[in-house]
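chain below, 603 aa
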Amino acid sequence: MSAVTNIAAYHFASLVDLKEWRGELLGQCREWGLKGTLLLSTEGVNLFMAGEAAAAEALLEALRRRPGLEGLRAKYSQSERQPFTRLLVRIKREIIAFGVPGIEPGRRTSPKLSPRELKQWLDEGRAVTLLDTRNDYEVKLGTFRGAMTLGLDHFRHFPAAVEALPAELKEQPVVMFCTGGIRCEKAGPYMEREGFQSVYQLEGGILQYFEDCGSAHYEGECFVFDHRVGVDPALRETSSAVCHVCQEPLTEEDQASAQYVVGRSCPACWRAPEAERAAVLAGREAALRRAASPLPGGVAYDNHRPLKVPASCHGRTVGETLAVVLPHLGAEVWAPVFAAGRMRDEAGRAVQWGDEVRGGQRLVQLVPGTLEPAVCADIRVLHEDEAIVVLDKPAPLPMHSGGRYHRNTLAWFLEKAWHPQKPRPAHRLDANTTGVVVVSRTRHFASQLQPQFERGEVVKRYVVRVAGHPPEDEFVCRAGISEEVGRVGTRMVDEAGGLAALTEFSVRERREDGSAVLEARPRTGRTNQIRLHLQHLGWPVCGDPLYLAGGEIGHTPTLLPEEAPLCLHAWQIGFRHPLSGEWVEFEAALPAWAVGGRGILPC
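prediction:
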C-alpha cells in the first residue's frame, strides 16, 4: 500500500488573527512530519499537503476547529513517495490570486454541479459549454473532450479572456472547471457579473470528477502542483515530468524528443543554436545598458586615485616623486591637494609635500565630487562563449581607468554586466577608436590569448579615413615609435630609432572631398601606431583631436559624444581560440563615415 497520503483542500471564510495562527500551524505541521503548502488569508485557506495518513487527518481537524472552517472538505490521493520537498505555511492576500475586487466566494458562489450530474448531462448529449479555467500548461496534459480553453498563462488574465468570449455564450449554459474547484469559486461570480446568465461550477473540480466518475468524457490526465506532475483518472501518479527550465509539463512523447535535455531544455523552451546565441547576446547587451544608464561617472562621487612609488624614487620626497611620475603637472596643481589633506598613504593618513617615500609605497589622491565627461555606451556584443567575449566598442569610450575617466569606462561596464566574473580585455583600442574588442572571460583564458597579441600572431585590420589622397594604392610605414611620452601623454614617431613599428596600408576609396578611406594592417602593436604613422606620412586621420596636420599635437586626447568622430575603426580580427585552438575571425560592421562616401557623423 502507498506510504504517503496527499490532501488538497480549500475553504472560503472570513478569518482573523492569522499571524499567531500561522505560527501554531507551522509548528504542528513540522511535528506531524507534513510537507507541502498551506496558504492562509482573510478570505480562507488553501492547501496541498502530504505525509502519513494520521498526520493529514490531524491537520484537517486542526483547521476545522477554526470558526468558519467547520465545513472544510479534502480530496485524497496516494503516492509512493513524498511529492513535496519542503513545508510552507504562508499568509497571502488571496488564497487564489485573481486581483478583482468585489468577488467574495465566502459570501456567494455560482451554482455547483456535482461530477455525477455533469457526467449525466454529457451522457445525454445536453447542449452545454465546458469551460476550462486553468492555465495553458495545465491543459496540455488533459481536459474534457470538446472543452473550451482560454490560453491563460496566469489566472489573473481570466477577466481579459472572458471579455474575448463570443457574446452569444452569455445566453447558453456554461459549466466551468479547474483542478480542485477553487478557481471556479471566483471565476463563476465574475462571469455572472459580466452578464453570463447560466454559469455552473464543477463541484470539487477534475480531481473530484476522477474520484466519482473516472475517465468518462475526459481525455488525458490532470496536472497537479507537486512532484507527481500528473495523475490519471484513477488518481495514480503518471509518467509525466516537468521541465526544470520553463516548468512546462512533459508527456512521454515530450521526454522522448531530442530537444529534451534534463535541466537544459524541452520541446517548449528549446531554441535553435542561432536563436539561443542571439538571446544570450541580447541579454548581455541589456545588462550593459543597465550598467551604463545613467552613466556612473555622471553622478558625483569621491574618486581615490592610486599612485605607486617607483623603486627609483625610494628615499625621495613626495613632491620629487610626483615630478617624476607626473611631470606635466606642476607644483601649483598639487598645492591645494596637500593643503586640503587629500594626498594620503595606505592607512588613510595625510602626507605632505616634503615627506619621504619608499619604493613600492602606495599613495592615494582623494578627488571629492568627481564628475566624468560623458561617453558613448552603445556597446554591441558580437560573440560570447565559455572563454571569450567579442564586442563592438563605440566611441568615445575609454577602455580602462585613467585621467578623467574611472567609471565611464568599458572595464567598469564589463565588471557590472558580467558580475561576479571580471572579464579582461585582451588588447586595447584608443577611447576615440570604434570596433572589435576581444575580452577574456577568466584569468586562465587571458593567459592563453594575450601572448598571441604579444607575439604578433593576431591579424588585425582597421578602416581609416584620412585627409588627402595617397598616390599609391599599397604602401607601408616602418617609422619607429618613441618610448618618450609627449606632452599630452602619448608616444611620438622617432626618426632616429625608437621601437620598431610596421603598418601596411591599402586605399579602399578616394573621395571627391579630398579624403580617402584606407585599410590599415598593423604588424606590430605600438600605442596609437596607425594614427602616428599616418600623421608622419602626411595624411592625418579625419577627426583626430591629437595628431594634427603638419606634425602638430592637439590638446584634447578624448572627444565628446557630440563631436565629430575619429575616423578609425577596428574592423576585423583573427586569432587562435584559447579553448579550441582553432583559428577564428570576427568583424564589426563599418561605421557610416566608412560607407558610400558619407560624411563625418557624430556618435
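The chain has four domains: 4-91, 112-238, 300-370, 375-603. The first helix runs from residue 18 to 32.
thats it, cya
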